[in-house]
Amino acid sequence: MTESKPYKVAIIGGGPAGTACAINLCRLGVKDVLVIESGEYEKFRIGESIPPESRQIFAKLGILDSFLAENHDPCYGSVSYWGDHRRGYNDSIMSPFGHGWHLDRTRFNRFLANEASKAGVEVLIQTKYQYTRQLEDGHFLLTIKNSEGRKTVNAEIVVDASGSKAVFAQEMGSKKIHSQPLICLAARFKAKDGQSPQMQLTHLEAVEYGWWYTAKLPDNSMLVTLYSTKEIIQSEKLNSPDQWLEYLKNTPHTYDLVQSMEIVDNPPKGFPAPSYCLDKCAGKNWLAIGDAASAYDPITSRGITKSLLNAEVSANIVAKRLNNIIPDCQEVHNHIKLSYDRYLEERQYYYGLEKRWKDSIFWQELQIENFQIPLT
């Protein structure tokens, strides 16, 4: 087993949280930053819309012009049938930041990794983190594996940005505290004549058994996603392609958007849509950010921006820890915990708006008051 050069910071996970943290660290003057990514930025990922305020985040990272050059589709807001049979709008016309964007997630993740590399970060792809051992000086010796074999990485500080696996944080003893996780079943639709859909708004529709989300993707397909609980999906057999499509056809509004199109993903792809926070998001020389630390219900549309803001805050804390200005990385836990508490209140508000199905198991469960994660 070979040993690599020592690093100031090793980041496990090359998604938005990990790569944005790495870029922020470089802008703060931290050298020798490593990102360990298990994939290669080719796997299909569910698209996501980001709000107009994301422009500020990209500007702080110094990558706004490069992001705009990626030409992700604009998103001018949302239209919804939620809490009422009448259509409601939430548009960005009055936003001082302009419009938001419908992201091609695979391309967006790859873009951030490339920007990190340009900033001076070493990005290893197709490299799996395996386990760690803490040394007497407080550093961590990580064992990683790729096509070249196993090697060890000596890191002064470790950032867990490994997504919902939270591989490092859980190795450090952290546990997830869940709060009503959902499952999503998603499929893309394309126009039979190859024409581009004109819809520039995201579309949400509440139904008795959950809710539907529809958005245009940059490849001119339409993404249609059903969110519900695992129990309802199993009991209603919604993981059956025919049943999923039948339920879609019976929606009052969503099916109208794609009825003239043909389905691309059959059967629909299933993805977890968890909601949780770690009971411990940081230690003396390690911290967890992004979905490794907490995951938000997609109804809030804050998953990516949450990760990018985590990255900014955590980079500043890591820089202070490296300079011995603070004794540990506990500030990260406090930041994530407070953000999660605000998220729970926001989610409670959104789900509480829907009063049409008093006897629905889905809405009863999602309207239960949530609990708070304690500060430590």
Structure characterization notes:
By secondary structure, the protein is of the alpha/beta class. The protein has a domain at 2-47 and 104-176 and 277-345: FAD/NAD(P)-binding domain, CATH 3.50.50.60. The chain is built from ten helices and 22 strands. The protein has helices at 16-27, 54-61, 64-69, 105-119, 167-171, 230-235, 241-249, 303-322, 330-352, 361-366; strands at 2-3, 7-12, 33-36, 48-50, 73-75, 77-81, 88-91, 100-103, 122-124, 128-134, 140-146, 149-160, 176-178, 182-191, 202-207, 210-216, 222-228, 261-263, 269-273, 276-278, 286-288, 294-295. Strands 1, 2, 3, 9, 10, 11, 12 and 21 form an eight-stranded mixed sheet that branches. Strands 6, 7, 14, 15, 16, 17, 18 and 19 form an eight-stranded mixed sheet that branches. β10 (128-134) and β11 (140-146) form a beta hairpin. It is globular, with a radius of gyration of 21 Å. The mean pLDDT is 92.
Describe what is shown at a glance.
The chain is 29% helix and 29% strand. The chain is α/β, with parallel strands linked by helices and 376 residues long. Strands 1, 2, 3, 9, 10, 11, 12 and 21 form an eight-stranded mixed beta sheet that branches. Strands 6, 7, 14, 15, 16, 17, 18 and 19 form an eight-stranded mixed beta sheet that branches. A three-stranded antiparallel beta sheet has the order 4-8-5.
Oligomeric state of the chains present here? single chain
Which residues form runs of ≥5 with pLDDT under 50? none
Principal-axis shape equals globular
Strand count, sense and closure of the main sheet? 8 strands, mixed
- The fraction of residues assigned to DSSP E strands is 25-35%
Proper CATH architecture of the domain at 2-47 and 104-176 and 277-345 = 3-Layer(bba) Sandwich
Classified in CATH, the superfamily of the domain at 2-47 and 104-176 and 277-345 is: FAD/NAD(P)-binding domain
The total beta strand count reads 22
The Rg value, from CA coordinates, equals 21 Å
Mean pLDDT reading: 92
Helicity, as a percent range:
25-40%
Count up the helices: 10
